[in-house]
Amino acid sequence: MKQFIKIDAAGTKVEHSAPEPERIIHGNPQFRTWNQEEAEGGLYAGIWEATPGKWRVVYDEWEFCHILSGRSIITEEGGEEHSLGEGDSFVLRPGFRGTWEVLETTRKEYVIRL
Fold it and tell me: With bands split at pLDDT 50, 70 and 90, how would you rate the model's confidence at 102?
């Protein structure tokens, strides 16, 4: 087993998905995910990309994100709106509820811990 994993979409199988239809507020957002690490105990890392649209999100997991490209707005339910772009990093904690709106196709690196 490798002990070093470079996070890079090239050569990694892409998974296609989308938000559940009942979560979509507007648009037709589509997701592409290049999951590059899946470790025992519920740890995941890779690259995720979404096309424009807005949907409701609910986080049961902890996630670190680093925006590689694009522009998005994450709004916490009953709280603050966060404009995000290239170079921004943030953590979403379990229990986060709100919306994710992609203004320009957004690509991020992520690390998720269940």
Answer: very high
Buried b vs exposed e over 12-43: b needs ≥16 C-beta within 10 Å? eeeeeeebeeeeeeeeebbebbbbbeeeeeee
For the chain, the structural domain boundaries read 15-113
Q: What stretches of the chain show up as alpha helix (H) in DSSP?
A: none
| C-alpha span between 90 and 113 (Å, rounded) | 14
Q: What is the rounded CA–CA span in Å between residue 94 and residue 28?
A: 26
Question: Which tens digits make up the pLDDT trace of 10-68?
Answer: 989 999 999 999 999 999 999 999 999 999 999 999 999 999 999 999 999 999 999 99
Amino acid at 34: W
Q: What is the pTM of this model?
A: 0.94
CATH class entry, domain 15-113: mainly beta
